[in-house]
Amino acid sequence: MSRLPILVAACLFLYHLPSPFAAETDSPTTAYSLLQSYNFPVGILPKGVVAYDLDTSTGKFHAYFKDSCSFSLVGSYQLNYKSTISGYISENKLTNLTGIKVKVLFLWLNIVEVIRNGDEMEFSVGITSANFGIKEFLASPQCGCGFECKELKTETYDTSLPSVSSS
User: Fold this and answer.
1) Domain assignment present for 18
2) Looking at the domain assignment, is residue 20 inside a domain?
3) What is the DSSP string of the chain?
4) By CB neighbour count within 10 A (0-12 exposed, 13-18 middle, 19+ buried), where does 149 fall?
5) How far apart are CA 74 and CA 19, in angstroms?
6) Residue 37 placed within a domain
7) What range does the domain containing 147 cover?
8) Which of 104, 101, 136, 130 is nearest to 115 (CA)?
9) Are 51 and 43 in contact (CB under 8 A)?
10) Could you tell me which of 89, 93, 107, 142 has the fewest CB atoms within 10 Å of its CB?
11) What CATH number is attached to the domain comprising 53?
């Protein structure tokens, strides 16, 4: 009895199994493309994310910078990102955020939630929140100088951000 038919059947079976690498090719390749896949603009993260991880079953994520990142934005807001930030991501919502602070008057407050509502972004520090137009977040600021860097090259991003279906 020849073993060839068994070998052929085994090869066909293995060929039709899903590849363990299929999820990697279907998933976003950067933290910025991950944001876009959940309907967020890339500009809520400054340039310089060196790695990220995501538990797709819970939405728990971590984004890693080489070092902490601080910069000022027009309107006298100062932001500080620790070298590791974390939280939970779902379509149009970032919750339980840690590692991001904003200076309001003389106080540093933790940004704990970001919600996208149409063309508006709502940033919550727990006791209060502020809304900004999404157009302010289409490009990522640079650590140290925000959007005021002399060597900053204008980058354009697709403004038709993809939506994630909740099916």
Assistant:
1) no
2) no
3) --SHHHHHHHHHHHHHSPPTTHHHHHS-SSHHHHHHHTT--GGGS-S-EEEEEEETTTTEEEEEESS-EEEEETTTEEEEEEEEEEEEEETTEEEEEEEEEEEETTEEEE--EEEEETTEEEEE-SS-EEEEEGGGGSS--BTTTBT--TTPPP----SSPPPPP--
4) middle
5) 47
6) no
7) 42-161
8) 130
9) no
10) 107
11) 2.30.240
- Chain centre distance of CA 135: 17
Model confidence pLDDT, tens digit, residues 111-129: 999 999 999 999 999 989 9
Residues forming beta bridges with residue 94, ordered by sequence position: 89, 114
User: Quick one: CA dihedral 142, 108, 66, 114, positive or negative?
Assistant: negative
Structure tokens at 41: 């603009």
Number of domains in the chain: 1
Task: For the full predicted model, state whether its pTM sits above 0.85.
Answer: no
Are the C-beta atoms of 52 and 62 separated by less than 8 Å?
A: yes
Query: Do the domain assignments include residue 140?
Result: yes
How do residues 71-88 score in pLDDT, each as one tens digit?
Answer: 987 767 899 999 999 999
